[in-house]
Amino acid sequence: MLKLQQEIRMVCHNKENVTEEDLKKMTWLKAVIKETLRLHPPAPLLVPRESSEETQINGYDVPKGTKVLINAWAINRDPKFGQNPEEFIPERFMGDTSVDFRGNHFQLIPFGGGRRICPGINFAISNIEMMIATILFHFNWELPCGIIRDEFDMSDAPGLSVRRNEKLYLVPREVDHTI
Ligand code: HEM
């Protein structure tokens, strides 16, 4: 979070608010959002599919009309595609990696892929980027009294759409950018 705040406050130095132009320069913000969607895809099983014809996959016969559930949550965490897949490491999306979530890289599919890919990607990402950048620009965030970082529950509640297991309580401290 501190690294992200540094980036946002450097890009928006002497400004009152974050603008869309500013977001283009925030590479760490984009990496943090990708990494968050990798570890916590809101629709972990995507939308169910049905096989349109009989086929074979890895030696298994798949009859026509089979319901197919794609475990994007597990695919995003497959050790084949990166080191320490259970850990939050946005650096994996920095540098020369071009892996994105637009359905071209099957190791990262929080928005699905193919013809049924989420049509709201651009709307979702612009909103998430602006919202995160704005709240981190204007506030410092602390954990409530008595909660320590290492014990903070980051688990997901199971379901077709996923949310946090525990409600998120944070304490905002307003930052005076004029100082
Ligand atoms: C972080 C935000 C979002 C995530 C992670 C997300 C994820 C997904 C996923 C995984 C699917 C299924 C894709 C597949 O099975 O291949 C989907 C479908 C869909 N999403 Fe999103 N979505 C998000 C935001 C939005 C927004 C903002 C809108 C609309 C404004 C939207 C509209 C839709 C629609 C209409 C479908 C159904 C597409 C179809 O079945 O043809 N989504 N989304």
From TrEMBL:
<keyword id="KW-0472">Membrane</keyword>
<keyword id="KW-0408">Iron</keyword>
<dbReference type="Pfam" id="PF00067">
    <property type="entry name" value="p450"/>
</dbReference>
<dbReference type="InterPro" id="IPR017972">
    <property type="entry name" value="Cyt_P450_CS"/>
</dbReference>
<protein>
    <submittedName>
        <fullName>Cytochrome P450</fullName>
    </submittedName>
</protein>
<dbReference type="GO" id="GO:0020037">
    <property type="term" value="F:heme binding"/>
</dbReference>
<dbReference type="GO" id="GO:0016705">
    <property type="term" value="F:oxidoreductase activity, acting on paired donors, with incorporation or reduction of molecular oxygen"/>
</dbReference>
<dbReference type="InterPro" id="IPR052306">
    <property type="entry name" value="CYP450_71D"/>
</dbReference>
<dbReference type="GO" id="GO:0004497">
    <property type="term" value="F:monooxygenase activity"/>
</dbReference>
<keyword id="KW-0503">Monooxygenase</keyword>
<keyword id="KW-0349">Heme</keyword>
<dbReference type="InterPro" id="IPR002401">
    <property type="entry name" value="Cyt_P450_E_grp-I"/>
</dbReference>
<dbReference type="InterPro" id="IPR001128">
    <property type="entry name" value="Cyt_P450"/>
</dbReference>
<dbReference type="InterPro" id="IPR036396">
    <property type="entry name" value="Cyt_P450_sf"/>
</dbReference>
<dbReference type="GO" id="GO:0016020">
    <property type="term" value="C:membrane"/>
</dbReference>
<comment type="similarity">
    <text>Belongs to the cytochrome P450 family.</text>
</comment>
<dbReference type="GO" id="GO:0005506">
    <property type="term" value="F:iron ion binding"/>
</dbReference>
<keyword id="KW-0812">Transmembrane</keyword>
<keyword id="KW-1133">Transmembrane helix</keyword>
<keyword id="KW-0560">Oxidoreductase</keyword>
<feature type="binding site" description="axial binding residue">
    <location>
        <position position="118"/>
    </location>
    <ligand>
        <name>heme</name>
    </ligand>
</feature>
<keyword id="KW-0479">Metal-binding</keyword>
